[in-house]
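seq/struct pair 1
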Amino acid sequence: MNPSMVTSPSLFSVDGLVGVVFLINLVITIVGGFIACNSERLVRAVAGLIVCFIGVAGVYYFLNSPFVALMQVLIYVGAVSVTISFAIMLAAPEEKKRVGPAGPLVGPAGFATAALLAGGFSVLAVRTDWKVMAKINDGSIKTIGIELLTNYSMVFELISIVLLIAILGALVIARSGRDN
């Protein structure tokens, strides 16, 4: 096949719609992260974090890894976000807003750094020759069980360590109580 005859997919083709859904998923992830980082209220920040985690699970699904996407939803959206919510509920409310010196990446320098990174990643994404991967498995429970106990055993153990750290953090906050 002649490389000059390769055309980009139409928006109304299957590949074009998959690209649009992927871009919507990326926007959801970025908006969730923006809400998590810029909210003044912790509850809204956790809600933004949940939205960001769901977007990351969608990216995992697009990377042809439905098991890791499911674990992202179960572990991070379900367990870690709930643990953070409990920690917020158990923590003492702040008396007043603290205003301190800003770090070096705040304001124009931070915006310039973010723009430079976004531009670099955009150029890299456009110039990369992306290859379409074939579907690896059917996603059945048997396949997931075999993959969990063979190829993804380290990922499963790391997820359990993250959950343990989140639970220990909630216990440390709960131990001091609201009075401190």
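seq/struct pair 2
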Amino acid sequence: MASNFTHAIVRRPSHSVIDGITGSPELGKPDYELACKQHDAYIEALKTAGVEVTVLPALEEYPDSVFVEDTAVITPRGVVVDRPATDSRRNEAELMLPTLREFFSEDQIRFITDPGTLEGGDVMMVDDHYFVGRSSRTNDEGFRQFTEALSEWGYTTEQVPVEHILHLKTGGTYVEDGNLLVSGEFKTCAQYRDGRFNVFEVPDEEAYGADCVRINDYVIMAAGYPAVRTQLDAWGYKVIEVEMSEFRKIDGSITCLSLRF
């Protein structure tokens, strides 16, 4: 069941993006100008995939604010406003609210509240079911609140332990039609191996390429991961590759850069 997306929300990189949170300091700091060019190409990829893109201005005081996916989880019936786990990102969700209210009425908006934490990078939609990572960024209380909100809209949830990486979708993404890319620890995840999915194990050297995003007839992926590209081609998708080098330096992936609905 392919999703029919019509809109995406992105936020421009700030000059302060060079100081974004990173678990890979050995990759160096992002180049701001190159990050902007890569972001431009990402926006063009979204448009090619058939969505109208709302481009929000940069927030200089929030180095990681380009990663809008962690501010909210948008479902076909409503939106859950996240509560990011790190203090430096806590206000990003609140700053997204005016834009969300352009598309959703108040009765379609729910909030994750203290002491819950939830980041959209930990949420993977599989039709009417949502996998939620239990990670350093999303806690049990955040999962409980999220489950309560989604049950109102007729959706179900399932928690997945995330031990060694930042977010659930860092380690693999569902590209619909039953097809799931997995890397690292998720190659042995029992919940992904119970017959629900056609699983492709991404080679360890291409683990970063496991985070892709399906939008209408297209899959957008990071450039430079040939095994992932070959599998997506074999599954019959139209593929768009975009350079992600600067966002990778601050733990960002393809899905992180947009909210899609």
